[in-house]
């Protein structure tokens, strides 16, 4: 090939020579400084690199149009100050990246060992060799083992070549991951990066989650991020935003929040164009350079008209890209080749870049040219990137796993909080050290946090990984669960054991079933039951404890004593169905009683067998069995009543109406409840494509059981195959009403307890082949004034009003994390959940919630294997009816009560209970009992940090529960700002000796220059549609409460949360505010533990397979079926 002669004056030639010499010398110094020995973790393969470098230089030489092009082409140090073409040319930044899922088609460890380690090695080596090369990295895969590698990576970061983005432990899902779990996984990632590499992440990188939640800008704006990169949104929405040049916008997560953040949507996807040459060596790829460069120039031409600025971002990578260095070297030569042809293609510059560089250039052009950006206040759910395939199936996929994630997360959170207080107590100078240091448990709680963080991945909690990968996630949760029980057990022993020596052979342990056969009646033996409350309010509600007792004559001897040794009113309920021998549950019962647990504290109860104690009402419940619907139809149990709720049933045992009476005000709604199934031959792990809806087909036997008693009334429907697989085919649906005696001392007179506010609906069923199972609730709410709302973890969001189109309900499905409701002007029907689900509606007054799905076909989204989820799912829903204003005032608090059940640890006592009471503090709260009802404590964590005086540093995150004006029609004070003294949050035994406000991830706030963006217009109206929603061109999720933002308001970017730094005496929270603090607590109490000899007792592991998930469960946790596992790996 003939080379074009360079034409320039002698000055430029000399300058060119100087630049080349300086570049060579700089590269030599860089390589010498960060070169070094190989290590087992990240082997820098120097020989291979030298070989590829030689091959790279043997490729055809690039022909440049002028020496200016050559000078500008490869100078990293000067690229931020380059002078752009004065014409219409655009600046294109290619962002090299590799999207590495921590579990999807392979497990986390398999990916790391087989692919990711090579990518990391390649990235470090390539960047070390040439300072013009860049790379961005998301998610925490880097297990840097030695100081030399750490120095290399830090240098690459400091000179701008390597940028960490996203910041989280994983790239989390945005639809079904719980808010606290998302915050915690981001915290784990950002903390690791800061501690290991001294990195402050500035930009979000959410390029693969299946739709975007408004929760994301809320969290990231509070983590001091300057911008977010998003990707997957509805196809027609994307087309409209392209057309209107709205790929860059200001995202305001809530009407109640002044927080906003700059957001950029990728133009197409995060991968290369479809015809990019993925395979072949450098020479083979180089033969396609003209074709590939034209691909990119055509894409650039398309993009330049769809953006408001001349700064274009193109991701340069794919899933697990750069496993071979050839890929980067080809891309590097391709950029040089495109540079030589830039002017004829209307391009000012093309180069490798980072997100920081992109946003800096973008900000400069926006500010210099006063370009207005649209304000966005909705979310991007659900995802419909094909007009016929809504990604709404994963909202419910692997429902059992979603519950295991939620339960493990709560356990880790509870262990974290009590362990933090134990560390504060242990490190207080006034308290002597024990034999064992409680601090040695830190690695266990850290590992537990990170395993829960791992499952928040967008192919983890979503249930969209291959089945053996889901099992691997479950195994990780099992370790987290066991670690947390160990930490919680030891922390409680340390905190409440007053004197004497701890018994290593008898620790507090988790028991999902108490076997009373181990106790002797009328003896001193008992079980101490320690209830843990992680919420910032007192818990007072019914609790059901599962027990086993073979001798039925001893049932009336069972009693629960409180810490004053007073017996409680109890009710013993046989497991339902109670008459089926194949279930082997004749000796299993639910023990029902009312517990009181102080805010962030513990309370102890005792279970004994005392034949001398009798209560006024029989302890054993009365059970009525109805063999046919006709029998039940004429029975008294078709209507159940308590002081607050009245329920009526259809003849088949399903709900027909629900009424509530509070403060002499009655609310009633007709609710025709049914369970149905969609048949499908097209749904997969991701998408929901129903074909036909039909009633649930119950099996041969169909019985209805009614339970009556002073604390609990219940109607249970059970269906199964007679004499064939009775246990495995059993389907159970029950409705439960809790009641309290009239003379019971309720926390608030005339106000129901949490368990009395709602009708509890429980179900147990297995997966049915190619069927998707749903509950339907048809109400008589006013169609013209009702709408569907679901929560995003922080607040409720309005959804598109249904258009009575049964065939398109899958396009009108939304994720629900904690609650969904329908409401008109006078009534609100609410469903509270204990895990994430898909919720839909095909009529303004109807609500549908999916509870299980089993698909036998792949949906062509990359997984290549069907879900095969035949696991048994046990779950609960809570149904409530109320006035919209009253429910708005405590809906979130009620939801937190349901999703944060007290964790109970027990130990079997062989001695007298009074001896236990003399050695243990049986009841305590670590919080002040007068905290505001609208204040929520999300977490308290310790990161193994200490002050110079040895005091443990704790981290606390708290929030205002209410949205702006949410409770204005019922109790306006709940929506007012909260102002309190943080020192008064804790009880009098603990005083704050140090306090520092941080960002949401407990990192120091960075005071940076703020960019002012002009909000040009609100473009949400462009996407409101009143007709057919099946096309997926709608965005939904406007805040239910709060005032609309005036368009004239300017956006302050990126971090506006610390307008006034809080102090000990002044903690201020506006509606929906979340704030975080680092503090030290000094323990000083009149209760002495100086004689305590503390030893950490190791508890026995209890795997998931050996527990019941619920009080009514007829099976222990089932494994996911492993069909074709070996074939599909």
From TrEMBL:
- Cofactor annotation: Zn(2+)
Entries under CDD domains matching the protein: GH38N_AMII_euk
For this chain's record, the cofactor binding note is:
Binds 1 zinc ion per subunit.
Organism domain of life: Eukaryota
All copies of domain Glycoside hydrolase family 38 central, residue ranges? 389-477
**Substrates-to-products reaction catalysed:** Hydrolysis of terminal, non-reducing alpha-D-mannose residues in alpha-D-mannosides
Q: Does the keyword Zinc apply?
A: yes
What is an example of a GO molecular function annotated in this UniProt entry? metal ion binding
Please name the GO terms of the biological process aspect recorded for this protein, alphabetically: mannose metabolic process
Task: List UniProt keywords, sorted A-Z.
Answer: Glycosidase, Hydrolase, Membrane, Metal-binding, Transmembrane, Transmembrane helix, Zinc
Q: Which stretches are transmembrane?
A: 12-34
Q: List its EC numbers.
A: 3.2.1.-
Q: Does the keyword Thylakoid apply?
A: no
GO cellular component terms, semicolon-separated = lysosome
Q: Which family does it belong to?
A: Belongs to the glycosyl hydrolase 38 family.
Give the protein's recorded name: Alpha-mannosidase
């Amino acid at each position: 090939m003939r080379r074009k002669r360079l034409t320039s004056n002698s000055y430029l030639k000399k300058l060119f020579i100087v630049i080349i010499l300086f570049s060579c010398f700089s590269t030599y110094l860089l390589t010498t400084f960060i070169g070094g020995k190989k290590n087992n973790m990240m082997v820098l393969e120097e020989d291979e690199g030298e070989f590829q470098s030689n091959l790279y230089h043997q490729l055809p030489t690039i022909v440049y149009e002028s020496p200016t092009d050559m000078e500008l082409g490869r100078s990293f140090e000067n690229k931020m100050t380059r002078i752009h073409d004065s014409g219409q040319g655009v600046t294109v930044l290619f962002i090299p990246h590799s999207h590495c899922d921590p579990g999807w088609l392979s497990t986390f460890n398999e990916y790391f060992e087989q692919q990711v380690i090579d990518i990391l090695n390649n990235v470090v080596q390539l960047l070390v060799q040439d300072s013009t090369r860049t790379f961005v990295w998301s998610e925490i895969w880097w297990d840097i083992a030695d100081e030399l590698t750490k120095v290399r990576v830090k240098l690459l970061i400091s000179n701008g070549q390597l940028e960490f983005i996203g910041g989280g432990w994983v790239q989390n899902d945005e639809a079904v991951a719980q808010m606290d779990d998302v915050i915690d996984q981001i915290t784990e990632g950002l903390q690791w990066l800061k501690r290991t590499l001294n990195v402050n992440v500035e930009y979000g990188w959410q390029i693969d989650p299946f739709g975007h939640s408004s929760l994301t800008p809320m969290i990231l704006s509070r983590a001091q991020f300057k911008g977010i990169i998003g990707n997957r949104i509805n196809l027609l929405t994307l087309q409209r935003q392209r057309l209107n040049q709205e790929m860059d916008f200001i995202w305001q997560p809530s009407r109640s929040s002044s927080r906003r953040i700059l957001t950029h949507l990728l133009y197409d996807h995060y991968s290369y164009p479809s015809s990019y040459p993925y395979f072949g060596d450098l020479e083979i790829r180089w033969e396609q350079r003209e074709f590939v460069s034209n691909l990119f120039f055509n894409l650039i031409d398309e993009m330049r008209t769809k953006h408001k600025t001349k700064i274009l971002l193109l991701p340069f990578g794919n899933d697990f890209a750069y496993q071979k260095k050839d890929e980067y070297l080809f891309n590097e030569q391709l950029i040089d080749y495109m540079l030589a042809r830039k002017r004829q293609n209307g391009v000012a510059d093309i180069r490798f870049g980072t997100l920081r560089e992109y946003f800096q250039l973008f900000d400069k052009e926006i500010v210099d040219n006063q370009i207005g950006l649209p304000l966005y206040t909705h979310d991007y759910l659900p995802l419909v990137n094909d007009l016929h395939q809504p990604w709404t199936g994963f909202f419910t996929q692997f429902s059992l796993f979603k519950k295991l994630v939620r339960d493990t997360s709560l356990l880790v959170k509870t262990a974290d909080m009590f362990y933090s207080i134990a560390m504060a107590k242990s490190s207080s100078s006034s308290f002597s050290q024990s034999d064992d240091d409680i601090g040695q448990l830190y690695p266990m709680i850290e590992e537990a946090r990170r395993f829960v963080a791992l499952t928040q991945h967008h192919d983890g909690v979503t249930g969209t990984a291959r089945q053996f990968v889901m099992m691997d996630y479950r195994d990780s949760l099992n370790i987290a669960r066991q670690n947390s029980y160990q930490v919680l057990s030891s922390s409680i022993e340390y905190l409440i054991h007053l004197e004497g020596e701890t018994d290593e052979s008898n620790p507090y342990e988790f028991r999902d079933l108490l076997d009373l056969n181990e106790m002797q009646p009328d003896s001193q033996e008992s079980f101490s039951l320690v209830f843990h409350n992680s919420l910032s309010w007192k818990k007072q509600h019914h609790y059901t404890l599962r027990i086993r007792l073979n001798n039925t004559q001893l049932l009336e001897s069972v009693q629960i004593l409180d810490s004053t040794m007073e017996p409680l009113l109890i009710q013993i309920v046989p497991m339902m169905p109670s008459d089926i021998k194949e279930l082997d549950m004749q000796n299993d019962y639910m023990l029902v009683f009312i517990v009181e647990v102080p805010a962030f504290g513990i309370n102890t109860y005792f279970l004994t067998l005392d034949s001398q104690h009798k209560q006024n009402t029989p302890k054993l419940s009365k059970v009525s069995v109805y063999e046919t619907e006709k029998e039940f139809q004429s029975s008294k149990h078709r209507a159940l009543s308590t002081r607050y709720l009245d329920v009526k049933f259809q003849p088949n045992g399903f709900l027909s109406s629900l009424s509530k009476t509070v403060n002499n005000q009655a609310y009633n709604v007709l609710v025709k409840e049914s369970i149905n199934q969609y048949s499908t031959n097209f749904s997969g792990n991701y998408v929901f494509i129903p074909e036909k809806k039909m009633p649930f087909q119950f099996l041969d036997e169909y019985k209805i059981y009614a339970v009556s008693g002073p604390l609990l009334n219940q109607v249970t429907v059970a269906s199964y195959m007679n004499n064939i697989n009775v246990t495995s085919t059993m389907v159970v649906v029950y409705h439960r009403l809790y009641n309290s005696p009239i003379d019971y001392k309720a926390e608030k007179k005339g106000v129901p307890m949490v368990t009395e506010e709602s009708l509890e609906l429980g179900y147990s069923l297995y997966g049915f082949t190619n069927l998707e199972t749903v509950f339907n609730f048809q109400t008589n709410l006013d169609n013209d004034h009702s709408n569907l709302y679901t929560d995003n973890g922080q607040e409720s969001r309005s959804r598109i009003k249904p258009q009575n189109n049964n065939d398109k309900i899958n396009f009108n499905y939304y994720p629900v994390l904690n609650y969904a409701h329908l409401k008109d002007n006078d009534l609100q029907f609410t469903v509270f959940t204990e895990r994430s689900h898909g919720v839909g509606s095909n009529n303004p007054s109807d609500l549908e919630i999916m509870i299980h799905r089993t698909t036998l076909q792949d949906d062509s989204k990359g997984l290549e294997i069907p879900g095969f989820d035949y696991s048994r799912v046990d779950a609960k829903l809570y149904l409530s009816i109320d006035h919209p204003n009253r429910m708005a005032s405590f809906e979130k608090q009620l939801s937190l009560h349901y999703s944060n059940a007290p964790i109970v640890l027990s130990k079997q006592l062989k001695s007298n209970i009074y001896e236990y009471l003399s050695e243990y503090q049986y009841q305590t709260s670590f919080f002040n009992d007068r905290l505001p009802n609208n204040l929520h404590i999300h977490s308290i964590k310790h990161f193994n940090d200490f002050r110079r005086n040895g005091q443990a540093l704790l981290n606390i995150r708290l929030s205002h529960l209410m949205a702006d004006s949410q409770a204005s029609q019922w109790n306006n004070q709940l929506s007012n700002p909260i102002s309190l003294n943080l020192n008064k949050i804790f009880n009098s035994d603990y005083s704050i000796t140090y306090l520092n406000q941080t960002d949401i991830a407990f990192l120091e706030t960075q005071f940076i220059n703020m960019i002012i963006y002009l909000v040009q217009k609100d473009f949400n109206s462009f996407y409101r549609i009143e007709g057919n929603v099946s096309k997926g061109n709608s965005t939904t999720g406007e805040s239910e409460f709060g005032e609309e933002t005036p368009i004239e308001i300017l956006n302050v970017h990126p971090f506006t949360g610390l307008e006034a730094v809080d102090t000990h005496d002044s903690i201020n929270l506006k509606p929906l505010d979340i704030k975080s603090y680092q503090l030290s607590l000094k323990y000083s109490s009149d209760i002495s533990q100086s004689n305590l000899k503390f030893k950490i007792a190791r508890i026995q592991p209890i795997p998931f397979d050996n527990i019941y998930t619920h009080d009514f469960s007829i099976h222990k946790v089932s494994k996911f079926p492993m069909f074709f596992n070996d074939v599909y790996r």
